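Aim 2, interim progress: modelling of the 2-phosphoglyceric acid-bound target.
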Amino acid sequence: MSAVRPGILLVLDGWGHAEPGEGNALAAADTPCLDRLLATPAAVLAEASGSAVGLLPGTVGNSEIGHIVIGAGRPVPYDSVLVEERINDGTLRSHETLGAALTGLAATGGSLHLIGLASDGMIHANVHHLRELLRIAALFAVPEVRIHAITDGRDVADGTAAHHLATVEGYAAEAGVGSIATVIGRGYALDKSGDLELTERAARAITDGAGHPVGKPEEALATSGRGDEWVEPGVVTGGDGQPLGPVRDGDVVLFTNFRSDRIQQLADRLYGELAGRGVTFLSLAQYDTEAPIPALVHRADAGGGLADRLAECGVRSVRIAEAEKFEHVTYYLNGRKADPAPLEEHIRISADAPPDYRTAPEMSIGRVTEAVGSAARRDDVPLVVANLANIDVVGHTGDHAATVRAAEHTDRAVEALCRVAGETGRWVLLVGDHGNAEKMLTDAGEGRRPYGGHTTNPVPAVLVPAQGRQAVRPTGTATLADIAPSVLSLLGLGPAPAMTGRALW
Ligand SMILES: O=C(O)[C@@H](CO)OP(=O)(O)O
Ligand SMILES: [Mn+2]
Ligand SMILES: [Mn+2]
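Predicted structure of the complex, ligand included:
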C-alpha cells in the first residue's frame, strides 16, 4: 500500500455553477478559498444532470444519482428513467403483479390507494407516473382509487401545491377514476430523519382519516404556515362528512415515488399496521424498506465502482457526512450496496436537535471538518471521503441570505481541510453533486419567486494537488462519471473495468 498516494474527496452538496447574477447565492458569498481554487488550471465544470448521469435529458440532478455516479464511474440509468421506459413501451400496463392486484380489487370492490409526492420535480416522483397508474386502474375497472397527495415545495417552487393538486384532479377526471383523499406536506410524509412522530401524523391520515377535515383538497393548504412542505395532514370528507380515504382490509396500497430514501419510513410504518389486515403493498420502483414490498420496476445495477475497486486493492477509506447526507457517501457512493466493505469506516455526524437551517446555516460543519481532519492525519487511511451538506441543505430553504452564509462556512471548512492536506501530503478533490445554491430564484409559475430546488447546471470539479505536484488543465467535457477514475488515478490505481469515465488529472 505504500505506493498509494493519499487524498481527500470532498463532495460539496448542491455546489453548482452559474454566472454571477441575481439569485446566485454562491457568487454573492465571500468565499476566498473556493474562488482561488476555481481560478486554478485544475478547475473544470462537470455535467451533473440529464443523460450525462443517467437521468432523462434536461432533468435536474439530485444527491442520490449524483453520488451513485460519482462512485460508479459511469452513468447509471436512474429509477425515474426505468419507470418512464416501462410506461412508454406499455409493459407497466401488462405487469403481472400489478394486474393481479387490480383484478382482485375489481372483484372485491376494494380501493387502490396511490401514495406519492404530487409534483413534477423529478427528484422523488413525477405526477405523470400517477396519470399512467390512474389510466391503468381504469383499464382494470378498479371501482375506487384514493390518492394520498404529498405536497412538495422543495423540488419545485414553494406555493405551487394548488397547481399540482389541480393537475392530479385533472388526471383523475381524464381517467374517469380517482379522487384525492388526503393532502399531506412532505415534511410529515417524507421525513427521513427518524422522527416517527411526523411519520405517524401522515400515516394516521391515511389509515384512520385522522387530520384536518376539508371539503376540497386545496383547502388543506391553508393549514401550513411554513409553505407547501409543511401542509398539515388534511383529510378530504365526502358528502356524508366521513373521510374518503382510510385504507380498508383487502385494499391495495401502491407507492408512486421512484426514489426510496424519503418514502421508506412511511412505507414501513403503513406496512407494519396494514399488511396483517390483508392489504396488498406495491411500489412503483424498488425501495430499501424493511418491509418486503414488491416493486413494479427494478433498479439498475450500480456496482463495480470505486468501493469495489478500493476493496480489491486493499485501500482503507473513511466516509464522513452529516446525517442528512450519510447514505450518500456510504450506500449510494458504494453502488447501493447495503454492507460496507471490510476496510471502510463510516462516521455519521448528527445534530443534537432538529436544526432550523435558516438560523443555523453552519449546521454541524465544524464537527464534520474535525472528523475529516482526524481521518486525514491517520497514516492507515489512504482515502477520506466527506460530504459538506450546507450549500444544498440550506439552499433548499430558498433563503438567499442563509445560503450565502452556508457557502461561507463551507469555504472556511475547505480552507481548513486544504491546510490539513498540505500538512499530511494529501491531494484534495472537490466536486459538486448537482446544482442548487447558484440559482435561488425562479420565473416558473406566476412571477419571480424564491427557489430552493436543484438545477441542471454543471458543477465545479477541482483538484488541489499534493504538495510538490502540478495539476494540468483537463481537456474535453467532464461529467460526474469522471470522478471515480480520477480518484483512483490520484491514488495511483487504475480504473475498474465497468467505468466509462476517464481520469481528469
Ligand atoms: O432532500 C431531498 O430529498 C432532495 C430534494 O428533494 O435533495 P437531495 O437529492 O439533495 O437529497
Ligand atoms: Mn446533493
Ligand atoms: Mn438537495
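Residues 13-14, 63, 66, 392, 433-434 surround manganese (II) ion (ligand 2) (CB under 6 Å). The chain has two domains: 7-74+301-491, 80-297.
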